[in-house]
Amino acid sequence: MIRELIFAGMSSVRVRFAPSPTGGLHLGGVRTALYNYLFAKHHGGTFIVRVEDTDQTRFVEGAEQYIFDCLEWCGIEPDESPLHGGEHEPYRQSERKEQGIYLQYAEELVRKGQAYYAFDTPEELEQMRQDHKSAENPSPQYDRQVRLKMKNSLTLSPGEVTRLLQAGTRHVIRVKMPENEEISFHDMIRGEIRNESNLVDDKVLLKADGMPTYHLAVVVDDHLMKITHAFRGEEWLPSAPVHVWLWKHLFGLDKMPQWAHLPLILGPSGKLSKRDGAKYGFPVFAMNWTDPRTQELTEGFKEKGFLPEAFINLLALLGWNAGTEQELFTKTELAEQFSIDRVHSGGAKFDYEKARWFNHEWIKRLDVENYRLKVREIFELNGIAVTDDAYFTKVLELVRERCTLLPDFFGQAGYFYSDPTGFDEASVLPKWDQAKRDYFTQLSQRFSALSSWDTAAIETVFKDLAQELNIKVGELQMIFRVMLVGAKTGPGVFVIAETIGMGKTLKRIANALAVFP
Ligand code: GLU
Questions:
Q1: For the segment 371-394, what is each residue's pLDDT rounded down to a tens digit?
Q2: Which of 226, 274, 431, 463 is the catalytic position?
Q3: Site to substitute for ligand 1 among 54, 96, 214, most atoms within 8 A of C-beta
Q4: Global pTM exceeds 0.85
Q5: Active site residue 274
Q6: How many other CB atoms are there within 10 angstroms of residue 272's CB atom?
Q7: Cα(189) to centroid(ligand 1), Å
Q8: Which of 100, 216, 314, 498 is the most exposed place for a label (fewest CB within 10 A)?
């Protein structure tokens, strides 16, 4: 908290969202981006997006652009990124590798005795795993227990190492984790985190193709990009001791960013997974994502009909709260109120019904202009051409209380555009008789004679005639609604009649009279 305030004064906060372009961006990823962004905005700092694409085997075509599209849809605008530029370019790690940024740091660690060259072939590594496999240790790692039995610069003579390097023998650089040391750091959410160095393996820092691994690149880039705070998912906690260790030996712990590991997002069956979407019928990605390798489509919140305002609002509250009863926040309000020490460490349960509630609230709150174009697209996809914008806006305003997701507008408002194709006869017929038929026949005549077609005039004519013929107005209203809408739903029936106009109102009454006995 105190450190946070110091930074607030200095406005030097620099945070990063560091996605790997390996596929769709799921809820947890967007939330990580959002928390970084809100923290930066809260402190008047800088929000950076750095693309961590050093693992070429996991690289997926199109994933980077998709990530930026998602961020744009959510309104999470980077200050610096491969697409936005910035003073620390390039922001793609593969391009930074081409500039030779990482190699020198790996070699520096070797010189200092904190890392070593390892020449083991894939077969030798496999052999090691077989040899050391036991009931207690089913998947042995390359660590302090085995490193001295392997082919590396700790076991080979300096002359042999030089010879192998000069001969261009395939090798990696591994970190040499210390023995019997406690590696601790302060996590802004979890407090003091202590790790035993003996439990951490000698991770590869530089791969045989010269690419840094995530572990080296993340530390080097956080340093070079002057990152002050690093917020990332809880799944990175086990890697933290390696990063802390690298910080200690490369740049000094006093320069290390403050860490916060964000809580997992839980689905109905533990950690929210991509498969939960299909299983439980809700989206897990921000936007539709089609895997180019399998053509498998994973649904997105955007296409499901969520508003970005609702989406970031619900994501912000998955792990954070303002400490008040307030649940609906604009992005500006979130940025004003967000603080990392109100993020909890326990898993945050994703509740789809609650997510829908947020969207419903946002549909009601926002100016219709914010989503008119999107709903218009939905109408047009359903074969309804929207030609009159003023009429369309009025319709959206009339039904929005009833809409939870954007496609609901079509179901709720279709009758403003086309005549009902059927009537809820089960509701009408028990109340239908000759008197009602006479009523609607006469009503049509009186409507045609009206000089001004507005809600008040329509209602007066309707009620006066009911009184004259001594028929319960409530029953008539229900029938009138079914005639106009097809069902017992919708806003006030006289407003519907006014909106669709006299011509359509008369036509629908006539259509119904032709169907009802
Ligand atoms: N590239 C890592 C990821 O894909 C980022 C982890 C971090 O923020 O340190 O999640």
A1: 999 999 999 999 999 999 999 999
A2: 274
A3: 214
A4: yes
A5: yes
A6: 24
A7: 18
A8: 100
